[in-house]
Amino acid sequence: MNVLERLRGRLIVSCQAYPGEPLRDPDSMRRVALAALHGGAAGIRAQGLDDLRLIRESVDVPLIGLWKDGAEGVYITPTADHAVAVAGTGADVVAFDGTDRPRPDGRPPAETIAAIHAAGRLAMADVSTVEEGVRAAELGADVVGSTLSGYTGAGPKPTGPDLDLVAELAAALPVPVIAEGRIHTPQQAAEAIARGAHAVVVGTAITHPTTITGWFAGALPSR
């Protein structure tokens, strides 16, 4: 069974921590990934070369890898060189920014997709619109994620998942669509599948205790 078929209708858990946080080290993310698998995750999404290498050594489920370089603009596996490095960690799928924004090296996303394929991996385009998803599929992306919806434009970030985008992408594309971004409840995950998602990625609501604690603390009356 190929990688994408193993993920059909299943949960992928994103194991990432931000710089400066207590869990921001590769072995912590490896342990978080193992805990997610014990809970029934079918795949893992992680970032950073050291994290990916260590997780790959520890798990045999599909692994989606990326490399965040920077904090603004295109920073999710922003260039073909980044993509090749991610592929070298053993990740099965290399996720990259599939939006229409300019890349740091000025090269087109088609070169990133070609580099991923040359390395023998699948290419996942993280997009923010249907148009970007269609373009990514035309360029050869093997799978498209709704990951960047709400993160590329001006204005406040939405609080919930963009399930309308998931449904529109699923209807428009000949490749699988993975729902990702602000999916915070089991009900939202199930709805994403019902609306056409091939699989669902959940990160913060499972693997980011600082944010989860803040949700609970913020719900209590102030003293």
TrEMBL record:
Stretches of the chain forming a coiled coil according to its record: none
Source species, domain of life: Bacteria
EC number: 5.1.3.9
Pfam families: NanE
Catalytic activity reported: an N-acyl-D-glucosamine 6-phosphate = an N-acyl-D-mannosamine 6-phosphate
InterPro entries: Aldolase_TIM (IPR013785), NanE (IPR007260), RibuloseP-bd_barrel (IPR011060)
Associated pathway: Amino-sugar metabolism; N-acetylneuraminate degradation; D-fructose 6-phosphate from N-acetylneuraminate: step 3/5
Keywords: Carbohydrate metabolism, Isomerase
Family in the record: Belongs to the NanE family.
Record protein name field: Putative N-acetylmannosamine-6-phosphate 2-epimerase
Organism field: Saccharopolyspora gregorii
